[in-house]
Amino acid sequence: MLAKANRITSADDYRVVVRKGVKVARAHTVSYVRSRESGAAPRFGFIVSKKVGTAVQRNLVRRRLKAICLEAIVDGGVHGVDVVVRALPGSADAEWPVLRAEVLAALDRQMRGAVNA
RNA sequence: UGGGUCGGCAAGACGGUCGCGUCGUCCGAGUGAUCGGAUGCCGAGGAACGUCCGGGCUCCGCAGGGCAGGACGGUGGGUAACGCCCACCCGGGGUAACCCGCGAGACAGUGCCACAGAAAGCAGACCGCCGUAGGCUCGCCUGCGGUAAGGGUGAAACGGUGGGGUAAGAGCCCACCAGCGGCCGCGGUGACGCGGUCGGCUCGGCAAACCUCGUCCGGAGCAAGGUCAGACAGGAAGCUAUGGGGCGGCCCGUCCCGCUUCCGGGUGGACCGCUGGAGGGUCACGGUGACGUGACUCCGAGAGAGAUGGCCGUCCAGCCGGUGUCGCGAAAGCGCCCGGUCAACAGAACCCGGCGUAUCAGCCGGCCCGCUCG
RNA sequence: GGAGACGUCGCAUAGUCCGGUCGAGUGCACCACCCUGCUAAGGUGGAGUCCCCGUAAGGGGACCGCGGGUUCAAAUCCCGCCGUCUCCG
What we know:
The protein is α+β, with helices and mostly antiparallel strands. Helices cover 44% and strands 21% of the residues. It contains three helices and four strands.
């Protein structure tokens, strides 16, 4: 799971990342990334709307996304970015490896895109 | 033993490990709010759900009057309250245990009852039946009168059966039965039940149609509401004191005040409310029961973009599979052993009481009916 | 947290207020035929779905989101659910 330092908690931060970040859409998720000063702790936020499903299903999706992001920090060395992952309707039915591959690939591409930009 | 019916229990346990959240303690950074790290305790439900009812709590000055509107509807009780629960009554279903019922009022009024049928609610009469007058081609026809037994329609046709009676018939009369109403007696707190007696013989159904009667209901909701801290800048136009607002459909009453629109500017923090309550458990007593009273005892989520999960091991119970030269048995099967599985519905956001709905695999008990054995 | 609206044949809708004529109408789509050299358009007719019986022709029953109830009778009235959508803060 993610520590509090790696979380986006204010509505303003969400708004900035979603509006000004680089956007990558996949089958079950839409990810936004915005670079901060390099070396800073990466921060993640999640948007899971009620269209995804019931409270239990939304909780499951959110926990899976948090686990994926933790893996990206520990193994992938992601740093210096703010990321918001929006779960689309249908993500509750996605298998764990599918969801994981999708988010990690999107993160990888977003990192390069953000650095190049 | 098969089937049924009613009620209850439970929502795996223990240990390890990796993580998440609140709080406490310690360490570090910072003037400080706070942040980081370590560590310890604790951390979702029986439905937390749907939001269908009822309350607590808070504010609307008081929670006031009337109209409108809404809810409820056998009787008696339980409760803070209820549309909930308990007991009983009545009606209906079932062989039974038991289940179902928005179960007041249809002589206060209005309205509706399709099709069929002569006629659908007030009585009337199509085919008939009977009497009588007339006609006649002597099968019958027409007029007037009396009938409602028979026919057919319908969900429903103004009591049923039998007898007397009659021109034919009819509660016209009689007996029994059904139903309605009055009175009396007995039982019950009561709804009501049982018995007796008398009466006219007898005038459907629908209020989950409008409605009438009785009882109850002021409005909003913890983003209620309050405390502290902090910020700023006003301007223009229009409308009015029989005006506007608190006030929610309206009126009264009452309190407060200039109001509306547009342009521009500021804030968008913290804390309280916030969880110990109509609370749970055990025992005793009262009560048929819902429930109440008393004693003892137990309470350890409280977030604020929102925390409970993953993995491993052992085990309880069940289920599935295997068959072992293990036990019982004639066999089916049961026990023991081995392997596998180990679950459903679903996530607190102010808090309670109900109702409704979802729920894998299970367990326990009462009662009823059938079969079999003793 | 609060407040609504709508579910009818493959699709879109009428009927619901005020029960019976509903064996559920209309349009599109579908099938057959006519018209045309062919197609479109137009015209005529047919046909909803599921279950049961029957070799077949045909016959019977059920279905207006689901389950109950009221009524002689329910798509329509009442109660409880399910689903979809919308609005307010």
